[in-house]
């Protein structure tokens, strides 16, 4: 796993950088580190090994995919249970000042501290897909640090902030599983309703009335799940429906109305943008291709 990006471990427990430091370690026959604390935040991503983590006097066995967050001045140390098994992890250190500057920009950067403040929850376990995405972001950051590419420092800042935001979002979603299920259920219901009522009013106001939720929440759920706005999704579905009608020789004047378009000029522009031809040109071209195919 990207051996060239690994760092040789040393016992230094202070930062050399004014903002952050990140390391990728893989060690065999490593000895225990004495109990200690930092003046900075430590984010610890456990890849593999046979170890446990003692945090503030409580011992936690670790499993691959664990995220450990240790705030400043919290005592901790790792216990090596079987030193013959490679002990692999990423370690990210961030100064209090840098972390504070992030949270001043957007409070969401600091959400990951809430479980610690509220219930002393320092460890969160990721599924394989989530942890693989996390590793990808870590490697991108480390790779950029070791590069000499144009705008390197700007890219490093973007990678670091993206990684921290990903941690916050991941932990938030772990802490709010019911909310996620409800959002997924709403999303699926919206999709089903939209596809069954393409020829009817599908405005955000109407959808909000049907599903008893705010139109802003509908927009958020849709964008999060599909990456498109509700309007964009409905437009694509209506164009697809109209396309299928046109190629079966339905009159264009009927097809666009049956597909939920109220205004021909808007329909015409959207169709041409989506398919590269006007509706009539597309219908003629398809009929010609079909005729040629049948003749052969």
TrEMBL record:
Q: Which Pfam families match?
A: Cupin_2, HTH_18
Q: Where is the HTH araC/xylS-type domain?
A: 188-285
Q: Which GO terms describe its molecular function?
A: DNA-binding transcription factor activity; sequence-specific DNA binding
Instruction: Please provide the record's keywords in A-Z order.
Output: DNA-binding, Transcription, Transcription regulation
Q: Which PANTHER family match?
A: ARAC-FAMILY TRANSCRIPTIONAL REGULATOR (PTHR43280:SF34)
Descriptive protein name: AraC family transcriptional regulator
Give the species this sequence originates from: Candidatus Cellulosilyticum pullistercoris
Species lineage:
Bacteria, Bacillati, Bacillota, Clostridia, Lachnospirales
